[in-house]
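Reviewers asked in the last cycle whether our approach scales beyond single polypeptides. To address this, we selected a multi-component target totalling 968 residues and predicted its structure end to end. The input consisted of the following lines:
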Amino acid sequence: MTDTRLTPASRLLEGPRGPKPTRRLSGRNIMLYGTLIVMAAYYALPLYVMVVTSLKGMPEIRMGNIFAPPVEITFEPWVKAWSEACTGINCDGLSRGFWNSVQILIPSVILSIAVASVNGYALSKWRFPGSEVFFTILMIGVFIPYQVMIYPIVILLRELGLYGSLWGLVLVHTIFGMPLLTLLFRNYFTSVPDELFKAARVDGAGFWGIYFRIMLPMALPILVVAMILQVTGIWNDFLFGVIYTKPEIYPMTVQLNNIVNSVQGVKEYNVNMAATLLTGLVPLTIYFVSGKLFVRGIAAGAVKG
Amino acid sequence: MPDSNAAPRRVDGSRPPNPLFRNLTSKLAALPMVLTALVVFIGCTGWTIVHSFTGSKLLPKLNWVGFDQYEKLWNTRRWLISIENLALYGIFSLCFTLVIGFTLAALLDRKIRFEAAFRTIFLYPFALSFIVTGLVWQWILNPDLGIQHVVRSMGFTGFEFDPLYNASIVLYGLLIAGLWQGTGFVMVIMLAGLRGIDEDVWKAARVDGIPVWKTYIRVIIPMMRPVFITALVVITSGIIKLYDLVVAMTAGGPGIASEVPAKYVYDRMFSSQNLGQGFAASTMMLLAVAIILIPWAYLEFGGKKHD
Amino acid sequence: MHSVSIRSLDLAFGSVKVLKDLDLDIHDGEFLVLLGSSGCGKSTLLNCIAGLLDPTDGQIFIKERNVTWLEPSERGIGMVFQSYALYPQMSVEGNLSFGLKNAGLPKAEIAERVARAAKILQIEPLLKRKPGALSGGQRQRVAIGRALVRDVDVFLFDEPLSNLDAKLRADLRVEIKRLHQKLENTMIYVTHDQVEAMTLADRIAIMKGGQIMQLDTPAEIYNRPRNRYVAGFIGSPSMNFLDGGLSDGVFETGGERFDISGYPFEGAATGPAEMGIRPEHVATGHDLDGLPIQADVTVELVEPMGSDTQVWTTLAGQSFRFRMDGQAEIRDGDTIRIGIDPTKASFFDKKSELRL
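The resulting structure, written as structure tokens, was:
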């Protein structure tokens, strides 16, 4: 569990190392590109199916082929998914889940990154007797199945008066995001020369002075990586959302699942796919926009379970 | 020469401070980490293990029942099916993820055109949640309107592929979706590993006249041992936590054909008010992780001092 | 008055003792160099003085004030680091004023001090730049400036020139010396480079294994090394050592008997010993006249260096090296007569390795 995981990730951006395929249209080349295209089709197909299905009307879906492009494009399923779809409890669509998720996401991302960056800073520059022990426990914690810890945490949150509330879930995300983010920040701050830290101490800066004035401004790249990691992870969370919140503040993933898998009524596949796409839109946007940084983030998060 | 630097200047530094209060701020700042480590990771895990030996039903109680919960657990058909499913899903998922991940990485590493585009396509599912993944594939595998229907309408009327409604192949349905979501990530790890190998190795292999496939198997893969181990750990711990995908795609069905341990734990704890069973089942999951990870940790860090 | 005093300082990392019962007094205004190879504890000692490492035991005084457990910023020290350690996101001006802002000085005074330091170091045109846009030499100047603005009692330098190329290093060395002449502050300077040590120091403390081997002026250390380690460490190329025995004005080595009656022994001098002769103190040609120790040796290897020539040979059965004028015409296999002045040699007890 060292920083080796960051380095290979940056290598992704270097050129390929394997042998160069021959230029002409050889059998080998056809094989190579053929395989890649077939695989790409497997990966790309679901996104395509989601999009085309969400743009069709129900009659067209019942008649035809899920792969066929829509004959008549309609945005009604999107409108319905956003504001009218029923979850079994209420019928105000995914919009409620979206705003819940946003409300959960923002404090969770800020708090988890704030805590973890301070941890990483303390662990790399202000080691105290026992600090490594706690860090090791944290790292082992990555591998403990959540199922072992979820119930006692329910009790803890209830004792704190946070069970079923938004802040309870924020706390849970902060706790379970901590190991990985702490590792990320610890490795980053360890790579900041010790002499810089010493110079700041000689200059009279204390723990927080060095953190805010020296370390944090230097940590911008890793902050972005951590943010991508957390936004995607927290947005996609289902288990914690369903356990630690009440139906009124269910995050989008939970609500999506309730809409699509609700047993009442006629299945509206176009609405379902629009809802699914809507839920996936936030992480997908981050993925397509951040590109390289996303790759760095997940490669850094390779130890995450 | 006056030293104006130290604002609240202490004059005497002859007495050592209490070691507990030395750099007190840093210790206070590390408090959330200390609490998380002690209370959540150790405390909560210990709490669950302890309570797995009780007969807790709706509320946790300390009425000891010894190994009763475990006995009951291993006599429950649903748990046995969950374990079997997880084992099968795990083995297939592990093999296919490694093979596909490595193959894709090796293909991408062969100085091809549009590498970035291919990489983007292979990896995007990883950005999506298991819920989204499960729902999309549920739709694609819909027997009346999805793939089965399309193939049949092309003339192959005998074609049958309805994993979501056929207990004997439902696992493959989950596998297709799980691989779709996760292989891109392993590909990225592998690609990073391949890029980390010195180009001279390829030159040497070429000078020695070793065919490309043989170079991969005999030279490159052994050199990538740490990368494979990382991938292995990532895939395994992901498999054990398999939950969201099942909930979204099959809800454990048809019947109980696609139940998994994590879902068993959740249902026992939160739906059927049988906490003791849930605790015992989750402790078994922890044990499974320990059995897999301890030898790995020993091989990786044993002997060497882990900094 | 002593500027810095260190009393029986111990420092251990776990079971590894890095500093052992170390005592050191540094005079006011003195330029003291801590010299030693890596791992000798010189940087550790400097970090202890700065307050960046806590000692296991012992006391540190700066200007008669016990600072052992004070924060670095409370000690009246400024420090210059090997890697410059400039804050990358701050401009040069920000770097210089950071410590002053932390101390809560009024804006006007900060500006005045920064301007003065910038003038002394001739970095005024760079004030608005970021460290990334500076050359290595400029960066180190800013680093020195950061210590300068704080008006400190003691300057600490931790191998400040090691990251610079040879030419720049020589230039900046001279500058540091000028700065010391001008400011007359106490300066403690850690280096592994003996040229830096010899040229800069008022006194040099040679360290090994967490202890000070010798604390003396450069000339004294060069001419009268107190033990075999110091003798071998100082001087380039390093001193020749001949193994043998001492008895009554005679040094016997490898079957040869050298008359050393002119050597000023400090006490009884008999028994197993080593004789140390610097390569530059071996005489040839005209300089041989009157030297009590003379021998004919065969040249084995010649290393011409331009200004002088290193000659490898064997004396009394042991490898031996000496220096000749760069213009000397000499070839492998030649036989040449060399001479040694015993008063320029050093003798060390074989067992205690101390100077005799």
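Residues 95-125 of chain A form the longest helix (31 residues). We regard this as preliminary and will revisit it once experimental data from Aim 1 are available.
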